[in-house]
Amino acid sequence: SKIPLAGLRYTFIGEPGQRPVSLRQALLAEPDPALLEKLFRTFGPNWWMQRRPYTFRLAQEYDRKLPSHYTLEPAAGKGALFDGRAGPEEVGWRVGDVVTLRHFRVVERKPDGQLSLRGETRPGRPPLRLRWLSPTNPEGATARVVATRDSLLEEWTAGFDKASFHRHSLLEPLAALPGLLNETVSGTQSTIHGDLNLENVLVGPGGLVWLIDFANTRDGHTLFDFAHLAAEIIAHVLLPPAVPAETYPSLLLEDGGGPLLRALREIAGRCLFNPDQPREYDLALALSCLGALKHSNLDAAARWRLYVAAGWAVRF
Q1: 84-141: per-residue pLDDT in tens?
Q2: Among 48, 54, 285, which residue's Cα sits nearest to residue 180?
Q3: What is the pTM of this model?
C-alpha cells in the first residue's frame, strides 16, 4: 500500500537562487568554528545565558539521552510484577526474565507500531523507560525482557579495543556509567533547544545561522545543547573515514579533538556555573556521546569515536 509522505524545505534565510544548507553540510564543506560562535551570539542572550542556579542529579537531565532501560516483547503466562512506580535503580531485570507490566503509560507510537512506555516520574529522579515490541495495550500484559540498557550498550561497543583506554589513561565509559548518572551537579538552567543536531541548524548566505524544529524546547541544563551538538560533530564531521581508528585517542589527547570541539568547549565555558569547574560540561559530553551510540545510522568507526570521546571527557 502507498504511504503518504510530505516534505518541508526551509527557505526563509536563503536568497534567490541560493538555499540554506544544514550545519552538517556547511561543516563538511568547511569546518569553520565561526559558525558555532555565530549560533551562540544569535540565540545565546535569550536562551543559554539565562543561567538560573540549578543543582540536579545527572540522571535527572541525561538519562533520557541513553537507550531505554528495557526492551520487552509479549509473552505467555504470568511473570513477576514490573511496577512503573519504581525507579530505574530499584529494578534489575535480566534478558529472558518474564514480567507483568503495571503502571506504565504510552508516550510514543513508533512508525513500526512499537510503543515507548514510561513509568511514573518522581521529583529529581528519571522515570523507567521501556520499548514495547507490540502495538497492544501494555497494562497488565505479560512480557519477556529481550534487551536491557547494559546489553544494548555492550552490543554496540563489542569488538572495541577497550584495553587502549588504560594505555591512554582514559576512563572506560560503560564501567563508569552508573557512577556518572548518580553524580550531583551544581549548574545552571536555561531555555534549551533539546535536540540541537546538525540538521536542526541552518546556514544561509553570509554564514547566517538559524534554528529549526522546536518540538523538544524546554527549560533544562544549560550545557545540554552544547554537549549534544559536540556528540553530533564527533559522529558525523570530526574525522575523514581514512583516519585509522587506533589514532583517535591520541588525536583527542593532543589537541582536544580539533578546532570545532575546542570552540564548543570554549562556548560552553561561558555558561558554566563555576568557570573553574569544567567537569559540568565534561559530564554532559560523556553522557551525550554514550547516548548517541543508539542511533542506527552510525557505523562502527563513528561509534568508536563517540565511545573514546566519552572516556576522554571524564578523565579530567
Answers
A1: 999 999 999 999 999 999 999 999 998 888 999 999 988 888 999 999 999 999 999 9
A2: 285
A3: 0.92
Q: How far apart are CA 220 and CA 191, in angstroms?
A: 6
User: Mind giving me the DSSP string for 164-196?
Assistant: HHHHTT---HHHHHHHHHT-EEEEEEEEE-S--
- Nearby residues of 218 by Cβ (< 8 Å), 6 or more positions away: 191, 192, 194
Sheet of strand 21-22, all strands in order from the earlier edge strand to the far edge:
21-22, 201-203, 209-211
pLDDT tens-digit series, residues 240-279: 666 676 777 877 777 788 899 999 999 999 999 999 999 9
User: Hey, how many other C-beta atoms are within 10 angstroms of the C-beta on 246?
Assistant: 10
Amino acid letter, residue 254: E
**CA terminus-to-terminus distance, the chain:** 54
Are 290 and 177 spatial neighbours (Cβ–Cβ below 8 Å)? Answer: yes
Query: What distance in Å separates the CA atoms of residue 255 and residue 252, rounded to the nearest whole number?
Result: 6
The sign of the dihedral angle between the CA atoms of 310, 47, 37, 193 is: positive
Residue 307's contacts (CB-CB under 8 Å, 6 or more residues apart) are 157, 160, 173, 289, 290, 293
Residue 145: which pLDDT band, with cuts at 50, 70 and 90? very high
Q: What is the CA radius of gyration of the chain?
A: 21
Residue with cell string 538559524: 210
Element (H, E) at 145: strand 142-148
Angle at 291 between CA 74 and CA 275, to 5 degrees: 150
- Residue among 82, 161, 194 nearest 129 (CA): 82
